[in-house]
Specification:
The protein is an alpha/beta fold. Helix content is 43%, strand content 9%. It folds into 2 domains: 80 residues, DNA polymerase, domain 1 (Orthogonal Bundle); 250 residues, TIM Barrel. The protein is elongated.
């Protein structure tokens, strides 16, 4: 987690306090505009020295800064006075979710997260903030899997931007070592089952999550062929949120496909089935997850996080995995990074078209 100021400490960094508030709001599924307000305010005050910020607070001019409103200005003032902001105290005092000992142990054994997004596509935070939050949670690695170009609504990465991102990741990994941001992508499965990025680029990535984002109501047989083709692609490592369902608000019905054939293909090719931990997804549904377990699939318990606080949602996937009887050694992100990378680089050899 991000730095957490202690109650009664003499020096509370105002920007850290604002970022911590944003993190907790993300974790607790608050409205996105609230999160953005605190993150924008943190970015705005970070450029100022503490003395300059204190003078502005003394003169009542904090709200002259871009993105600083009444609530964020109050939090900054309290932090400058050496107090933990009252807003942060309230959030920190909320009772945390009580963990079943089995869930806690399962969660403890997860070494990383293989599905996350940054502000390069539709995430809300820079890559390094996502990485630092994952590291602070105790992870050894996180895979950055921003969207591919077809998903324009999510500002997907075309070839040029993906290449630029790889250079940025190399520099971030030098700074954060031994923690590692694995290179990756959440690539769209197109209607014919092909993947929405150039093969030579996919071959360079550490982790490729392949997901259906369009034509979710496709005929069952056609959807099955589409998914099987994608799973058989030598670059696919993880089948992302396989039904595409949404279970909150107006919701979205799950896609229909032959689960026996799709999961059987995953077993044959060594492809992992994602257990997507996002509260609005919880995908696959329990009956399908149990079916995937029964045929011997590998799994990846991922958050699909679009903000640092959402990385804590992995608990939901851990609960779902345990309820379905998933064995921890079948979960690829419980593996050490070297084992994970050996798997992503070699399991493609198992792919042989029927």
């Amino acid at each position: 987690m991000l730095a957490q100021p202690a109650v009664g400490s003499q020096i509370v960094d105002p920007a850290d306090a604002l970022r911590r508030i944003a993190y907790l709001l993300e974790r607790d599924r608050a409205e996105s505009y609230k999160v953005r307000a605190f993150r924008h305010a943190a970015a705005s005050i970070s450029a100022l020295e503490r003395d300059e910020l204190s003078q502005m607070a003394k003169n009542g001019r904090l709200r002259d800064l871009p993105g600083v409103g009444e609530t964020t200005a109050r939090a900054v003032t309290e932090a400058l006075d050496g107090e933990v902001p009252s807003y942060l105290k309230v959030l920190e005092s909320q009772p945390s979710m009580a963990l079943d000992p089995e869930v806690e142990e399962f969660l403890r054994q997860l070494r990383g997260d293989c599905h996350s997004h940054s502000d390069w596509s539709d995430g809300g935070s820079p890559i390094e903030e996502m990485a630092q939050a994952a590291r602070d949670l105790g992870h050894d690695y996180i895979a950055l899997t921003d969207h591919s170009p077809r998903l324009t609504v999510a500002h997907g990465l075309d070839r040029e931007r993906l290449l630029q991102q790889l250079d940025v990741l190399a520099e971030i990994n030098r700074r954060l070592a031994p923690f590692t941001v694995l290179t990756g992508i959440e690539v769209d499965i197109l209607e014919d089952g092909s993947l929405d990025q150039d093969d030579d680029l996919l071959a360079r990535l550490d982790v490729v999550v392949a997901s259906v984002h369009s034509k979710l109501k496709m005929d069952r047989d056609q959807m099955t062929k589409r998914m099987v083709a994608a799973i058989e692609n030598p670059h696919t490592d993880i089948l992302g949120h396989c039904t595409g369902r949404i279970i909150v608000g107006r919701g979205r019905a799950p896609s229909s496909f032959d689960a026996q054939e799709v999961f059987g293909t995953c077993v044959r090719t060594g492809t992992a089935v994602e257990i997507n931990s996002r509260p609005e997804r919880r995908d696959p549904p329990e009956p399908l997850l149990q079916q995937a377990v029964s045929v011997g699939c590998l799994f990846s318990v991922d958050t699909d996080a679009h903000a640092p606080g959402q990385l804590e949602w992995q608990i939901l996937g851990a609960e779902q995995a345990l309820e379905a009887g998933v064995q921890i050694d079948k979960v690829v992100n419980s593996w050490a990074m070297d084992r994970l990378l050996d798997w992503t680089s070699t399991h493609a050899l198992n792919r042989s078209p029927r």
